[in-house]
Amino acid sequence: MNAEQNELITRIGPGTPCGMLMRHYWQPVALLDEFDAQLDPAMALRPVKAVRILGQDLVLFKDTSGQFGLLDRDCPHRGADLSFGRRESTEQGGGLRCPFHGWKFAVDGRCLETPAEPLALKMCDRVRQRSYPLMEKSGVLFGWFGPETGAGSIPPPFPAFDCFAAPATHTFAFKGLWKCNWLQAFEVGIDPAHPSFLHVFFNDESLEDMAGNAAGRQFRANSAGSVDGERWPMTRIMREFNQPEISFEAMPYGLRLTALRKMNAQLTHVRVTNAIFPHTFVIPLSETMTITQMHVPVDDTHTYWYSIFTSFAAPVDKTAMRNQRLRANPMPNYLPVSGRHNQWGFNAQEQQTSTFLGMGEDDINVHDQWACESMGAIANRTREHLGTSDKVIIANRRMLVKAIETVQKGGTPPGMADAALVPGMTGPDTVDGIAAADGWDAFWRDTAAAKRAGAPWAAPSATPHTASANPSEPLTNIANA
C-alpha cells in the first residue's frame, strides 16, 4: 500500500473521503451510564458533556424533560464553547444557554433566546444551531452525521441485530479509549490469526473458576464440544493450533469469518465471527454470550471502542460487569489505566512464565490496545508485508476503498447505510467449538441455532450457505500496492 492510499482509508475529518463515508452510518457517541448520577454524581447537577467524534466537536446534554440533544459545540453567535453552557431549569424554560451572551438553545437546535438583542430583530427566527439525530440502543446513544437536508438526509433504520434486539436485562454496554486510528483498532479485531499469539496463556482455567473476575478474559472460556469427553478451553486451542485455515463470506452487513484449526484427523476447531461494515465485529465470549464491538473514530488518532455484551441465557449482572471493567477504564472519560506511558503494564517475567505478551491475564483488551497503539497513531501500512493469514484484512480494505469510491460518485455505501438491505440483517451468529472434521459446517450452524432456541428472547436467524470468497485470490491492489 502506498502513502496516498493509507491516507485515503484512515482520515475521517469533515470533507475527507473516508469521513464522508463514515457519516452515512450511525455512530456511538456516549453510554447512557455516563449520564447516570449514581455512577457520576456530577450528572445530578449538570448532565452536559463535551463530545468529539469524526473530528467534530459537539456538546451532548439532557434537558429537564429528559430529552437528549447533540449540537455543534461552537455557539453560532461568536463561537464560544457550548459544553460550558448553563443547563437551564424547568422554571427557566429549559435548554442550554451560552455563558458568553446568553443565547439559549433547545435539544433540537432551535434558538430560544438572544437576550442582549432587541426583540424586534427576531434573531431567534434566523438562527439555528446544527443538531444531530440521536437513537438509544442497548444502553448506547448513537448519533447520525449525514447531510442536514436534501438527498441522503434521512438516517437508515437500525438492523435487528441480537445486540439491539435483546431486552435491556440481557445486554450490557461499556467503552474505552485507544490512542490510535480507528482502522488499526478494527483490523486487530477482525484478524482470526492473532489470538494464537497475542492472547496466548500458558496455563488454562475456565470462566467458572474466576470468582467474578472474568472481565476481558474471554479466551479462558471452554469451547463447545469436547475431545475424548474433555472440554477444552479456548486458551489451549489457540496455543496448540496456531495456523488456522481462514475464509470469509460476503453478507448483507459485511463479512462472515471462519477460522478452522485442525486438531487431528477426526476433529476441527471452528470459530465463526463477523465483520460488520465499516467498523464493528461480533465474536463469541462464551457459549451463551456474544460481544459486539464498534470502533468509532474520535479523530484521526483516537478511537473509542464500544462493546455490547449480549446474553442468550440468564440476565446479565450489569453492576458486576461494570465494576470489573471500570478498574481498567475508569469514569468519567473511560481513559485506560494502561498505555504507552507505563509500557501497557509489560512484565518480562510474566512473558516467560504465564502469557505470550507479558501484559497481564485479567484483561485481554490491554493486549489489543498494545497491538493497536504500538503501531503508532496512524499505522504506516507502506511498510507491511501481508501474508495469507491477512486475507480478511485485505478483503476489508478493498471493501472500504470501493465504498469510498461509491460515496464519491453519489451512491449508497454498503451494509447498514443501505436502508434497502437493513431489513434482511439479523443475528449475526457466532460459534466457538470443536466439531467432527468432516461436519464442521453443520456443527456450527446447529450449535448457533441451539443457542438461539435456548434464549428467552431470540428469534430464529437464518444462516444461509454463501459462496466463500476465493482464498487464493491474489493479494494485490489496495493490499500490497
Describe the structure.
The radius of gyration is 23 Å and the shape is globular. A hairpin with a 2-residue loop joins β17 and β18. The C terminus is likely disordered. It is α+β, with helices and mostly antiparallel strands. The protein folds into two domains: 118 residues, Rieske [2Fe-2S] iron-sulphur domain (Rieske Iron-sulfur Protein, 3-layer Sandwich); 295 residues, no CATH class. The protein contains twelve helices and 20 strands. Helix content is 21%, strand content 23%.
Short description:
The chain has 481 residues and is of the alpha+beta class.
Topology record:
Elements: H1 3-10, H2 17-22, E1 27-31, H3 42-45, E2 48-53, E3 56-62, E4 68-72, E5 86-87, E6 96-97, E7 104-105, E8 111-113, H4 123-126, E9 134-137, E10 140-143, E11 160-161, H5 162-165, E12 171-178, H6 182-189, H7 234-240, E13 245-251, E14 254-262, E15 267-276, E16 280-286, E17 289-299, E18 302-311, H8 318-326, H9 348-353, H10 364-373, H11 391-408, E19 426-427, E20 431-436, H12 440-454
Parallel strand pairs: 11-19
Antiparallel strand pairs: 1-10, 2-3, 3-4, 5-6, 6-7, 7-8, 9-10, 12-18, 13-14, 14-15, 15-16, 15-20, 16-17, 17-18
